Amino acid sequence: MTLLILGGTGTLGRQIVRKALENGFQVRCIVRNKRAANFLKEWGAELVYGDLTLPETLPPSFQGVTAIIDASTTKATDNIDVINVDWYGKLILVELAQYAQIKRFIFLSILNSEKYPDITLMQMKYRIEKLIKYSGIPFTIFKYAGFFQTIINQYAIPILEKKPVFTLLESPPIPYIDTQDAAFFCVKSLSIKETKNKTFITGSSQAWKSEQIIELCERLSGQKAKTLMISTSLLKVLRQITGFFEWSLQISERLAFIEVISNTQNFDSGIEDTYTILDINPKEILELDFFLQKYFEIILNTLEKRKQTKSILI
Ligand SMILES: NC(=O)c1ccc[n+]([C@@H]2O[C@H](COP(=O)([O-])OP(=O)(O)OC[C@H]3O[C@@H](n4cnc5c(N)ncnc54)[C@H](OP(=O)(O)O)[C@@H]3O)[C@@H](O)[C@H]2O)c1
Fold first, then answer.
1. SS3 assignment, position 266
2. What is the pTM assigned to this prediction?
C-alpha cells in the first residue's frame, strides 16, 4: 500500500512518516525542498517535489497511491497567506484525491475549528473538514488541541532562558499529546475499518492547565518562571490591534490560536471514544510530566557538560 504524506518534514508529519515506515507502508512524501527533507529519504521514504501553492506540481505524486495523510499547514515562519495553503492548496488536494479514487484521506485539524469562523485558519480547517466529508472519499479526521513539542517553545525554553512566559487568566485544562503518539493513532486508523468516515478528538488522557505546566517546568528546571498573566479580553484587543497591519497578521493568528485553546472546554467528551475505537490503552500513551522530565534531564545535563568543558578550557 502506497501512502502519500504531506507535511512529512513537520513536527507531527515526520513522526507519521517514521511510524508508517515501521509499519511496513510504502511512503511517498510531497516536499517543497528535497535537500531539507533528505532525512525522510534516509529513513526509507520516497520524495517527490510538490508545493500546495503551485497546483501543477501535485498530480505526479498521486500515481498508485492508496491513502493520503495530510499533515501540512501554513508555517508561521513562511510569509505566505494561510488561505493559499490551507484553503486553495487543500481544495486541489481533495480534487486530486477524488480523481485518483483514494481509499482513505486522513486530514489533521484543530479542536473546535467549527466554533471560530472569525479566525482564518480555524475557518479554513472547518471548511476543508466539511468538504472532505461531502466529497465521497473515505476519510478520517483527527482534531488536536496541541502537542507536547509546542510546550517546549511556549514554556520550557523561556523559563530556562529567564524570559517571560505568557499565560491567560483562568486557563482550562488542555489534553496535549506527544507527536509520536498522535502519529501512532493516525497510522493505526488505516488498519481499523471502524475509523472510516469518522472524526476523532485526540489527546493524552490527562489534561493540564497552564499554571500546572509552569509549576512543573519550574520544579524540573530549578528556575523560577517570569509569568505574565493576561486576560482573554486583553488578548482580544491585542489581536484586533495586530490584525490591522498586514505584516502582523501571523501574530494576530497566533494570538487567536492561544485564545481558542484557552477557551476550549469539554474536550474529554470524545477522547474516550477515540481510545475505544482505535483500541488503544491510555496507559500506553506518554504523559506530559514524564515527557518534560526527560526533556529537562537531557537539556540540564548538556548545559552542565558545556559549563564543565568551558571551565577546563579557561
Ligand atoms: N502544532 C500544534 O500544536 C497543532 C495543534 C492542533 C492541530 N495541529 C495540526 O496538526 C498538523 C501538523 O501540525 P505541525 O505543527 O506538525 O505542522 P508544522 O510543524 O508547522 O509543519 C507544517 C508542514 O507543512 C508543510 N508545508 C507548509 N506549506 C506547504 C506548502 N505550500 N506545500 C507543501 N507543504 C507545505 C511544511 O513543509 P516545509 O518543511 O517545506 O516547511 C511542513 O512539513 C496541522 O494540520 C496542524 O494544523 C497542530
1. coil
2. 0.91
> What's the one-letter identity of residue 72?
S
Print the domain residue range for 7: 2-147+175-205+266-285
Q: What is the pLDDT of residue 312?
A: 77
Q: How many Å separate Cα 108 from the centre of its chain?
A: 8
For ligand 1, the distance from its centroid to the CA atom of residue 53, given in whole angstroms, is 14
> What atom of ligand 1 comes closest to residue 72's alpha carbon?
24
Judge whether 248 lies within some domain.
Answer: no
Instruction: Tell me if 91 is assigned to some domain.
Output: yes
71 within a domain of the structure (yes/no)? yes
Tens digit of each residue's pLDDT (9 = 90 or more) over 40-86: 999 999 999 999 999 999 999 999 999 999 999 998 777 778 899 99
- Ligand 1 atom nearest the C-alpha of 179 is 16
- Grid cell 500506553 is found at 284
| Dihedral sign, Cα of residue 130, residue 131, residue 137, residue 142 | negative
Inter-axis angle of helices 288-313 and 210-221, nearest 10: 30
pLDDT band at 247 (very low <50, low <70, confident <90, very high): very low
C-alpha distances (whole Å) from 267 to each of 13, 81, 92, 206 are: 23, 29, 31, 11
- CATH number of the CATH domain containing 83: 3.40.50.720
Average pLDDT value for the chain: 89
* Any domain includes 170: no
Query: What is the number of domains present in the chain?
Result: 1
Cβ < 6 Å from ligand 1: which residues?
A: 6-7, 9-13, 32-33, 51-53, 71-75, 85, 89, 108, 110, 144, 146-147, 150
